[in-house]
Amino acid sequence: MLLGTHPMLTGKPTPTGPRTLGEWTLQSTPVAVDRLVRVCRFGGQFIAAGTSGTILTSPDGIVWTARDTSAADALYAIGYRNGLYFIGGDGGTIRTSPDGIVWSAPKTITTNILLNFAHNDDLIVMGCTNGTILTSPDGIVWTERGGPQATIAREILRVGNVFLLVGDRASIATSPDGIVWTARTPAYPEPVETNGIYAAAHGNGLFVAGGVGGKIQTSPDGIVWTARASVHTATIWAMTWSAGLFVAGGDGGTIQTSPDGIVWTAATGATTNRLRGIAYKDGLFVAVGEGGKIQTATFL
User: Fold this and answer.
1) Where are the alpha helices (DSSP H) in the chain?
2) HSE value, Cβ hemisphere, 13 Å, CA-based, for 212
């Protein structure tokens, strides 16, 4: 996720026509870690974060290096803006880095868990637990905002002049500025306890969201949502859109792909562990998840 902005731009033209991913391949993880929660591509490198204060970086998605954070808390959110990396997680702590290698000491900015970042030209927006939204003009001074619903913000992304938030209890909300939010009606509204939405992406003019039970829904504007057929009933925890392809992953290592967010095709991953994050750079998709597993796939 390019700090919540989709698609991830690589500087290369997006190919036209349907594309097919090749076989997924496991890569070596340089440290033992229970869970890698998120992976993103910023500043020419992949960066992954997880439990026990784990931060990994890689120039190519194949060879990974562990970075020292001198911390043991779980890290969930990764962001990048104006040459500065951000990572946040348990305890409401945030760390910053100019290069993704050397990280600052943690700074506590809230009592809530930090889960994800997005930004526009003026503001960084962070989603947290307990319905909390944080905003900052510079990544240093943060203001706590009331979120649209008292729930966990599983994903925030920004496309054009629209911020989109999805989360537990079938939560969907939009905002023009990251400050004032409006709750939207999802395609799967009831029961909210079993319709959590954990992942979202945007591509080809369409927002796509996935969650519990493999339920997928789409929207052209983040306001009106339509249910779509999924090829899996496993919960979706990660999604991205890059190079003309949506890729979603989740429980049991399930993976599915779609060129348009509407018609999906099952793919075979390299692990049965839950997938928690997916990113793309220069022809390579990288997926991370439980057990610290890292796997990659390229186009055929």
Assistant:
1) none
2) 18
The pLDDT of residue 116 is 96
Q: Is the pLDDT of residue 11 over 70?
A: no
> With 0-12 CB in 10 A as exposed, 13-18 as middle and 19+ as buried, what is 63?
exposed
Q: Quick one: how far is CA 22 from the chain centroid?
A: 22
pLDDT in tens, 219-239: 999 999 999 999 999 999 999
* pLDDT on residue 17: 58
Within a 13 Å sphere around the CA of 115, how many CA atoms are in the beta-carbon half? Answer: 23
CB neighbour list of residue 191: distance below 8 Å, 6 or more residues apart: none
**Furthest CA-CA distance within the chain:** 47
Q: Which residues contact 76 (CB under 8 A, 6 or more apart)?
A: 37, 38, 49, 88, 89, 90, 113, 114, 115, 116
Q: What angle do CA 58, 87, 172 make, to 5 degrees?
A: 110
Residue 300 pLDDT class (50, 70, 90 cuts) = confident
The two three-digit tokens of residue 51, written as one number:
């439990």
Whether 154 has a pLDDT exceeding 50, the answer reads: yes
